[in-house]
């Protein structure tokens, strides 16, 4: 099943330098896009403001019928991007989206902000 990585492209970490020409979120998004290029089960999109400014850089991982996660506080580095993509690949393979802690890439430890249960199936009969 397809897991979507949504990257906040407006994230700016404390001390961000406007003269760099890119936000920290744009840099992280580019690195994640590069790391995910050609992988099955993963798609990447950018979105302006995930409203997690106090823990920038932020990403969300989502898939139909699976647990969803928001992660933040990343440095915009290739190590962070590789860890996010590796975790998203594991998320894509798990039926529930829940990845065993022992399998988490080191780069994502300490970066979980929230998790959200999947939305109820709109086609399901509420009386069942």
Automatic annotation (TrEMBL):
Which Pfam families does the annotation name?
DUF1636
Identify the domain of life. Bacteria
Indicate what this protein is called per its UniProt record: Metal-binding protein
Species of origin: Jannaschia aquimarina
List the lineage, top down. Bacteria, Pseudomonadati, Pseudomonadota, Alphaproteobacteria, Rhodobacterales
